Amino acid sequence: MRYRGITSYWDTSFEILGMTVSADRVMAFIIALISIAGMWFYLKKTRTGRAIRAVSQDERGAMLVGIDLNRIQTLTFGLGSMLAGLGGASLLSLSPAYPYAGTKPLIASWFVVTIAGLGNVYGAIIGGFIVGIFESLSYFFLGQGWQEVASLGLLILILLFKPTGLFGTEIKSVWEK
Distance between CA atoms of 5 and 142, rounded to whole angstroms? Predict the structure, then answer.
């Protein structure tokens, strides 16, 4: 297997609270924040964003008010692919690319979404910080290779006591309110 990657976009580093952080990590974090803010603005403030939210809540109702489901579903798939590509490109200098490179971030994002609860952007951000800090602490205290095991243990504990996730609700659609 041949690994491909970029050694570094920027060769500088910053000192933040006594820790040295590479500029690549800072820029990846800034790109993530801008992407989240842009997607939130797009989904909340535009007509197409409202259509996407309507289709996600109730496909039949959205179709009845004249929303083209095929167009919205294709657009949503394209937006998700765009965000995945942007995330992969911003992290390419931190880890090399190979055919199964997305497996670890995919599992981590599944942990984040499940811990936070579906449909909550703010909860996903907080859930991301929870999983990241928990994996860092498990690496520090338990050693390498235990991050996913510790995250899975945290996920199981949270789902035992709150099956909808930390910020999820019992409501499945608009009609169940």
Answer: 29
pLDDT at residue 58, as a whole number: 86
Show the tokens assigned to 20.
Answer: 């040295």
Residues 127 and 166 sit within 8 Å (Cβ to Cβ): yes
| Residue 34 identity (one-letter amino acid) | I
Farthest-apart Cα atoms in the chain, separation: 57
Domain boundaries defined on the chain: 1-99, 102-177
Q: Assign 108 a pLDDT band (cuts: 50, 70, 90).
A: confident
pLDDT of residue 1: 66
Distance of CA 31 to the CA centre of its chain: 13
Using the predicted structure, report yes or no on whether residue 174 has a pLDDT greater than 60: no
Residues 6+ apart with CB under 8 A from 69: 55, 59, 62, 63
